[in-house]
Amino acid sequence: MKRTIAGQRIIVTGASGGIGRAIAENLAAQGARVILAARNLDRLKELETSIRGNGGEAFAVPCDVTKPDDRQRLFAATVEHWGGLDGLINNAGVSAWGHFQTSNEALNRTIFEVNFFAPVELMRLCMPELTKGEQPFVLNVTSMCARRGMPAWPEYSASKFALIGMCEALRGELVRFGTDLITIVPGLTKSELNQHLLRSDGKFTIPFETGMEPAYVAERIVEAIRANRREVVLGGEAKRLIFFNRFVPKLTNWLIARRVKKLYRDSE
């Protein structure tokens, strides 16, 4: 099935910057009616104005997706404004760059609230309306850490693993409602994630500046929506890591362990 983007009513969370902003701009340019959701009202309104100035349709709903009342308000505003819902893109996320032994339970729970519970409960909330939509779909942006947990990303990896697990379970369930579920697994991206880390004291430097451009990631995501892809891995780094982890897991584990040991030895 080829999905028609024009005219679709689509929620994009985490739309105030990075990948989320790029997705919203791309969808609006192709005729979708976009609901912009994020906590930063000023950036949302600026994006809303920009999209409308370019002839697109969008409106902003400031919200914290971890709060049930905010999720309800986002959903209600969408239905009231557009009269229904055809797509939900769960893009909002948060991370922490640091090692497990020096982390804590509160940080773990915060990351899970944003990366797992919020998108899951937003899916649950939106599902009755999505089932009445045109070519309805849910798209969840995860990470290559969702297919191979990485050192210094323990909470992030676990939260994205959990989201992928939920996606795989729900994909079979949503078939009976005529709703598609798409999973995006991107590698390193210049997504502003590094600017909002809950901690940043990992043992080595991550070259975020070498990551994929958000516009490129957004383009691939919109292509996945149109082609109704099940799961899409983006970026050479992510593809290599997942390939090696699948076919030579012992070697992958050894290489990662060797690097971690060297980092700790050098730091000491």
Radius of gyration: 19 Å
At CATH level 3, the topology is Rossmann fold
Tell me how many strands there are: 7
Total count of domains? 1
CATH architecture: 3-Layer(aba) Sandwich
Largest sheet: 7 strands, parallel
Could you explain how this protein is built, in words?
The protein has 268 residues and is of the alpha/beta class. It has a single domain, classed as NAD(P)-binding Rossmann-like Domain (Rossmann fold, 3-Layer(aba) Sandwich). Helices cover 49% and strands 14% of the residues. Helix 5 (154-174) links the parallel strand 5 (137-141) and strand 6. The radius of gyration is 19 Å and the shape is globular.
List the helices and strands and how they pair.
Blueprint: E1 9-13, H1 18-29, E2 33-38, H2 41-53, E3 57-62, H3 68-82, E4 87-90, H4 105-130, E5 137-141, H5 154-174, E6 180-186, H6 214-227, E7 231-234, H7 236-247, H8 249-267
Parallel strand pairs: 1-2, 1-4, 2-3, 4-5, 5-6, 6-7
Helix pairs in contact: 1-6, 3-4, 4-5, 7-8
Task: Tell me briefly what this model is.
The protein is α/β, with parallel strands linked by helices and 268 residues long. The protein has a single domain (9-267), classed as Rossmann fold.
Summary tags:
268 residues, Rossmann fold, globular, 14% strand, alpha/beta, seven-stranded parallel beta sheet, 7 strands
